[in-house]
Design a protein that fits this description.
Blueprint: E1 2-5, H1 21-29, H2 37-41, H3 57-70, E2 74-78, H4 82-97, E3 102-105, H5 118-126, E4 131-135, H6 142-150, E5 154-158, E6 172-174, H7 189-204, H8 208-212, H9 215-224, H10 231-244, H11 250-259, H12 267-284, H13 288-295, H14 299-334, E7 342-346, H15 354-365, E8 369-375, E9 378-384, H16 391-396, E10 404-407, E11 411-417, H17 421-435, H18 438-442, E12 444-447, E13 449-450, H19 458-465, E14 479-493, E15 497-504, E16 507-513, H20 520-523, E17 528-537, E18 543-552
Parallel strand pairs: 1-12, 2-3, 2-4, 4-5, 5-6, 7-8, 13-14, 16-18
Antiparallel strand pairs: 8-9, 9-11, 10-11, 14-15, 14-17, 15-16, 17-18
Length: about 550
């Protein structure tokens, strides 16, 4: 891996800030100017923008209130991922609390695919709804909105994706990416739903704290959707984690119990434990039970669904392992050195899991990757990308070859005729090759700054903690520490992990290398090393280093 240090020196903070130069430098690296430091270090709810800054918000609220007052059914139509499920659950709870007659519809991932579904529109008609509110979808549903309009059903689109071409003829559209008046462009789908809920509460006279208690759902959807952890997303997640740690939500409590999670809950618990279990329903069963889990007050029902999620997640892990093994064999056969991208397909691959496997291949080979599940005439694909390649933009340039596609810069879904797979692989690789650099193919470890071994202490750890919650555009700090001597007896523990101690002058610290067994033989001779690390506090309160990469010093 190539090491790229974001800054060689340190920035000196103005005296009025009364902060350490290490923290000030980390803030500068993250693009936080002096005017934004106070609000960044104190992510208070008062810094949220008014929901009424959305151009269509008042129009949307008026239409929803009309149905609430007349008890006319409202259908919430969401996406089948964590972002969509949490957003639907949030609006369901708020509209229900306001006395509204509300239903929800989550499309089947495998048979209906992503987006506003015509089946969902038909369901709205069957229940007598004359209003659909989309959550985390709908901005590309031009035909579906037209169909709803033809049935006399108004559609309010709440979404955070870019449309493929033009926007649908909806009654109202609430989408930060398309709204010139709304300042923050990176809200997740659940974040947009939260803004709508706040505006509804204000209009109806519902106490704001009733909506704030739903920030646990906002944190879960925001983290799971991997949106930039800056601005409003950081504020919502910061407070959402506090709510999550004392959640009143019966379903979340059940899922935490089944998953073995006890407070304090962090973003990694959402990203790697809670989120995958909710997503597993949509991948292998039906995601509608996710909304049922997050809206029920029945403890027994909640535990039943949570256990089912846990079961499907284990099944997903097994399926993922099998697909990954097959994909690696295909990569070996294709000769990866001749390609700037990876496009693979198989009739045996489960459509609901190929996106996760694509992510694993990106991590390993540092190339945009698309995997297809072949099903007769058509193949459904899921892609993941690297920072320098905009996947949605690349697919847009190839849209004549595709039956349909959607997504964003980092991830996308698509459908193609199976007999075009070879042609698509070649065309996609050509497009990627035009933009990718040799450095991208190597893989890059981005390092914030150099520190000394004696700065690995509780004070530095407290400064790092003040930057939480972490995520895209606000990653957990990564440091380089140079000229260290490996001492003691480096050892293997719990399978693929290693631990060892390093010394510089009189300072020494323990280093843990998770999945770092490949380094063990190289350090048994106790060489001099440069380390790339992050910092963490262990269960006993000690400050330790987590190994990211290392280089043996020449002559060491």
């Amino acid at each position: 891996m190539k090491w790229k240090i974001r800054t060689e020196g340190r920035y000196t903070p103005p005296e009025e800030f009364e902060i350490d130069d290490l923290l000030y430098t980390l803030l500068k690296i993250r693009g936080i100017d002096d005017n934004g430091i106070s609000s960044f270090l104190n992510p208070a709810l008062k810094f949220l923008h008014s929901p009424f800054m959305f151009t269509d918000m008042e129009r949307a609220i008026g239409r929803i209130m009309e149905n609430i007052k007349t008890k006319k059914p409202i259908l919430l139509h969401g996406d089948y991922d964590v972002d969509g499920i949490t957003g639907v659950s949030l609006l369901y709870r708020v509209i229900k609390k306001m006395g509204g007659k509300v239903y929800y519809y989550i499309p089947a991932r495998l048979s209906e695919g992503y987006g506003l579904s015509k089946k969902g529109v038909v369901y709205a008609r069957e229940i007598g709804a004359n209003l659909i509110i989309t959550v985390d979808c709908g901005i590309s549903g031009v035909e579906e909105v037209d169909y709803a309009n033809s049935l006399g059903i108004d559609v309010i689109v709440t979404d955070h994706h870019h449309p493929k071409e033009h926007v649908p003829d909806a009654f109202a559209i609430i989408n930060p990416k398309l709204d010139e008046k709304y300042p923050f462009k990176y809200l997740a789908g659940v974040g947009v739903a939260f803004k709508l809920a706040l505006a509804l509460a204000y209009t109806h006279g519902l106490e704001q704290k009733e909506v704030l208690w739903l920030l646990d759902l906002v944190a879960m959807g925001t983290v799971a959707d991997v949106v930039p952890m800056i601005g409003e997303n950081r504020i919502l997640t910061y407070h959402g984690l506090q709510v999550l740690n004392k959640t009143r939500n019966t379903g979340i409590r059940a899922l935490m119990e089944v998953s073995g999670i006890t407070p304090p809950v962090k973003t990694h618990h959402i990203g790697f434990i809670l989120g995958p279990r909710i997503n597993a329903l949509g991948r292998l069963s039906h995601a509608g039970d996710g909304v049922k889990l997050l809206t029920t007050y029945d403890k027994n029902l909640a535990m039943e669904i949570a256990r089912r999620m846990d079961f499907y997640n284990k099944e997903r892990q097994s399926t993922e392992k099998s697909i990954l093994e097959g994909a690696l064999k295909k990569v070996e056969k294709m000769g990866i050195e001749d390609y700037s991208s990876i496009v693979l397909w198989d009739e045996e691959w489960h459509q609901g899991v190929i996106g996760i496997v694509a992510s694993r291949l990106v991590e390993r080979f540092h190339r945009p990757t698309i995997l297809f599940s072949v099903d007769g005439e058509f193949s459904k694909g899921s892609g993941r990308s690297i920072p320098s390649i905009d996947l949605f933009e690349t697919l847009t340039s190839l849209e004549d070859m595709l039956e349909e596609f959607g997504g964003h810069r980092e991830a996308a879904g698509l459908v193609i005729k199976s007999d075009k797979l070879e042609e698509f692989r070649s065309a996609f690789n050509t497009k990627v090759k035009e933009k990718i650099s040799p450095e991208d193919l190597e893989g890059v470890v981005y390092i914030d700054m150099e520190i000394s071994l004696d700065e690995v202490n509780e004070k530095t750890l407290a400064m790092i903690k003040s930057l939480e919650p972490f995520g895209p555009m606000n990653p957990s700090p990564v440091f380089i520490i140079r000229n260290l001597k490996v001492v003691g007896y480096p050892e293997n523990f719990k399978g693929e992990h290693i631990r060892f101690r390093v010394l510089r002058e009189r300072e020494h610290r323990e280093v843990l290398g998770f999945n770092g067994l490949k380094h063990l033989d190289n350090i048994k001779g106790r060489p001099d090393v440069d380390l790339v690390v992050s910092m963490f506090k262990d269960r006993n309160g000690g400050t330790k280093l987590k190994l990211i990469d290392m280089r043996i010093k020449e002559g060491g």
